[in-house]
Amino acid sequence: MDFSSFLTSLGTSFIIFIVLMLLFAWLSTRPGSTVVYFPNRIVKGLEPWEGGSKTRNPFAWIKEALSSTEQDVIDMSGVDTAVYFVFLSTVLGILFLSGIVLLPVLLPIAATDDGVKKNAHSTTSNGTFNDLDKLSMANIQENSPRLWAFLLATYWVSVVTYFLLWKAYKHVSALRATALKSDEVKPEQFAVLVRDLPDVTPGQTRKQQVDSYLKSIYPETFYRSMVVTNNKEVDKIWGELEGFKKKLVRAEAIHEESEKKGQGTRPTHKTGFLGLCGEKVDSIEYYNEKIKDLAQKFEAEQKLTLREKQQGSALVFFTSRVTAASAAQSLHAQMVDNWTVTEAPEPRQLIWSNLTIKFYERMIRQYAVYVVVFLTVVFYMIPITFVSAFTTLENLRKLLPFLKPVVDIVALKTVLEAYLPQLALIIFLALLPKLLLFLSKTEGIPSGSHVIRAASGKYFYFVVFNVFLGVTIGGTLFTAIKTIEKKPNSILEILAKSLPGNATFFLTFVALKFFVGYGLELSRIVPLIIYHVKRKYLCKTEAELKEAWFPGDISYATRVPADMLIVTIVLCYSVIAPVIIPFGVLYFALGWLVLRNQALKVYVPAYESYGRMWPHMHTRILSALLLYQATMLGYFGVSKFVYTPILIPLPISSLVFVFICRKKFYGAFCHTALEVASQELKETPHMEQIFKSFIPPSLFSEKLEDEQFEDALSQVSRSESFV
């Protein structure tokens, strides 16, 4: 890529962002689009905007985002979202403080040397990108005294990272404690999940086993237990029943609309495959009959499930938050594979099918998934490397000669060089997250937020290994294959010296991500088009309309690893090619601004884990820092700088920092501290409501207190309960 292609990529990305921002400024004031741009406020019963759409400044969102407080974010989107902004702010601070020292110091030092001319082979640019190579370590001669400045800069970036991460960990710990201490009753704070129940003794039911065991340990505060059941069949029937109810409401809405037009035509459909074949029936009558038949079947299956499909785990409820927190941290049985007690997730987070997986099966599943993920990470690198090498314009011309007339067109060549490799890589990566979410769920994890955290970690290591290392190694090996054939021992030196040249790819990659990526995020063009198409042609009921505009949550499973990739790239190149730092600052500053708006007005959180993602974010940032420190050690070594060993304490200090942080802070994120749980509530918790909030929708019934439901949903005597 030459300098003109780089400027073309940067300029085009910036223009696209400006166009998308202007589109957002205009579209967000249109009354018909409020559900797309302000769904979070609408769901909470607030006005989409303050003042009328005609008088609203189209750029008021910038002022609103900048003036919003952390408490505003918590009120609108929860603690998890506030913690995500702590992450963005921390990384932004690391890059900004690094940049104010590195840019004015290192750029002049690099620019005034002439290493590129004397070592033409030291960059993969082959003389085509000298303008930026002169601003990197590629322009510093081997064993030059100027390398001292870069060595000290490596220490500066590390120290800044330690300081800001420590400060952020303390802040997030305080946020989590404050949220858990709040007077709002959180059902999960009064419950624990008990797994790996031993076999029931003859003459005893599973409910009696759980009640007698836990009540003997916690006689004063035990309230009720809910034995987990195999809900596969009842869930299936419930899903079919709810589906027919929706179809009935839709059919009635179509009929009502027809009557308003004076036609009065009753909707009909065919009962065969996809409504394309089979008997033609009256839709309203057909759905009513189906609902009636399924309702009876559903009630019978509910009774059967609660009586005969009980499994070896249960949810146990206490009248005290302190008891629940203490129980979740205690060893209840002599053998660790019996009576395993953990904190209960939020009711909406429970993955019921995973609650019954036994102790050793969970371990086997976990290690099996780790092996699969390792193989995926390693062997996915083959197509990633192929894509990164193949999609460079020069390689396309060599491998596909028939494209020469096309790619030699000057205007087209500039655009292709600017975007082709980056777009190919981004599209390729979009295929992976669903696989990692499936694998994480397969481990037997009991809660949705934990699955997202697990998938996020897997995705981070994948993108670092395959994108960062894959692009660096793949692009270099493909270009320098002949040199390596002649001198096989030179491979490490070639890889190290290619780093400044590869920075140009990542400069464009980061620019594309923050200009085009955040432009699309802000403008919400795709969700807007989908909503209006559905509203015009598909939606007939209010429920269907809400489903069409409902935005979902902020998608941490993919968003956090994508941000972490940028952190890794910018950190690793911050000293080698300092010009990348402003791009990193722009990415996180623009991301903070755009996502602040989205958090306050768009995304509706799907769960609340009170900042449990933070330890994972913290660890990933430090992983990126360790990779950066290892990269600098290698690069200084190849530069034949005799004082390179001075950098050896850095990775050691990072590992010590990880250890100290884990020991000091991590425990309060695994469990609720008793001093937090002991905070008195202003209102007495309604235990029956807490209990009912955990009942899965497919088992909920108004007849819950009947004897037929007693087997799985146990209760103590009302005289002994605490309400």
Automatic annotation (TrEMBL):
Pfam families per the UniProt record, alphabetical: PHM7_cyt, RSN1_7TM, RSN1_TM
Subcellular location as annotated: Membrane
Keywords (A to Z) from UniProt: Calcium, Ion channel, Ion transport, Membrane, Transmembrane, Transmembrane helix, Transport
Top-rank lineage group of the source organism: Eukaryota
InterPro entries: Csc1-like, CSC1/OSCA1-like_7TM, CSC1/OSCA1-like_cyt, CSC1/OSCA1-like_N
GO molecular function, one term: calcium-activated cation channel activity
Protein name: Early-responsive to dehydration 4
Species assigned in the record: Hibiscus trionum
